[in-house]
Amino acid sequence: MSTIPLVSTTQPRRDIPNRTGGSSAWWRSPVAAPLAALLLASIVLVPMGGDRWIADRIFAAEGAHWTLRGSFVLTRVLHGGGKALSTLAWLGVLAMTLRATIDARWKPLRRPLLVLLLSVAVSTLLVSSLKHLTRMDCPWDAAIYGGSHPYFTLLQARPAGIKPSGCFPAGQASAGYAWVALYFFFASVRPAWRRIGLAIGIGAGAILGIAQQLRGAHYLSHDLWTLAICWFVALAIHRLSVRRTVHPGMQAANDGDRSS
């Protein structure tokens, strides 16, 4: 039985950023570039009104009412089904991780699978926790969209006496965006597929996120921040894992380079 071809442990790791040359350009950085994009998009969406501009047009297109809020496709198929599919995928990764623990042929996959498993779990749990801490409203809560609460943005203090909601960041979209961790999984086991893994995560999150926006459950910025959280969680766990598995001699050489 054939196994998945892996990156040779005797060759330079492609998933470890190059410390020299043109690869250090900021726009290729997995930290700086996403942070810059997040900051720019957040400025456009929140203080400049992009969130409300998009929500206005969705609301108007649905006849000044969240007509699709109870849509079978959006609620049962995408909302419920999307979360269930993500859970099944996670359980599938768990099963593969257990096999990699007991089957010597799968042993090279154990660390990448564990990292993927942990990244998806931490991302979704963190987003869920933040929803309860921020207590932000959904579009359908705002009076301008048929709700009972005054409209306010992420940058404004919550009006006193308003019942807390839990709409930021976007929990449903995290069921898809958490799988951007596939980028780092494939970077470890088959680097040529890493962008496919990234596309799967972004595509799944976007589908679930747009469905919720059509229902009036989220603004676009809610989904943007969910994607950012999932990306940085996956990146942090991947980097920590890589540091623990780098050959001691290589780590000592890197430490010497940094101190010189």
Q: Could you describe the 3D structure shown?
A:
- By secondary structure, this protein is mainly α.
- It has helices spanning 32-45, 50-61, 72-102, 110-134, 171-177, 182-189, 194-215, 220-245, 248-259.
- The radius of gyration is 21 Å and the shape is elongated.
- It starts with 31 loop residues before the first helix and ends with a helix.
Span between N and C termini?
Answer: 48 Å
Give the percentage of residues in beta strands. Answer: under 5%
What does the radius of gyration come to?
A: 21 Å
Quickly count the helices: 9
| Helical fraction | 55-70%
Largest sheet: none
Uncertain segments of ≥5 residues (pLDDT<50)? 7-23, 247-260
Structural class, by secondary structure, is: mainly alpha
Mean pLDDT: 87
Counting DSSP E segments of at least 2 residues, the number of strands comes to: 0
